[in-house]
Amino acid sequence: MTNETPPVKTALEPRALLQKLQEQSPTFRDFKPLAIRIDTNILERFPEFEKKTLRTALRMHTASTRYLKAMERATERFDFDGAVAGEVTEEQRTHASTTLKERFAAAAKLQRAKREAEEAKRKAEEAELRRGEKLQQLVSKFGK
Length: 144
Hints:
A two-stranded antiparallel ribbon has the order 1-2. The protein has helices spanning 14-24, 26-29, 38-45, 51-62, 65-73, 90-142, and strands at 76-78, 84-87. Strand 1 (76-78) and strand 2 (84-87) form a beta hairpin. Helix 1 (14-24) crosses helix 4 (51-62). 67% of the residues lie in helices and 5% in strands. The radius of gyration is 27 Å and the shape is elongated. It has one domain: Fertility Inhibition Protein O, Chain: A, Domain 1.
């Protein structure tokens, strides 16, 4: 039986944890496709990380547009140190591509809706201004 005490878990927020990973790993820093089960290797290397927080940080990283763009073109996956650790399948590249297309389409739809709302507001303001001018003309014509 050893007298080693288990490492104290640090309560890092997912963004702070992700930033630490990006500082220490070329794979994270360069948004390269991650090796499958990299979370296990990270927890071995950093036992102070909380598993739930790490998973949240990994989800944030892998859902980023930059990561998905890298996945779309990649053929290899990388471990924490930047060494090749597997391959990216055609199905995974297609999934990344589809996710990006859906994301960009949703963003374009929001922009379009915003422009249309601004245009409708501008037209309503112009119509109100015209009504006011016409009312003013009627008052000046018949108010004598």
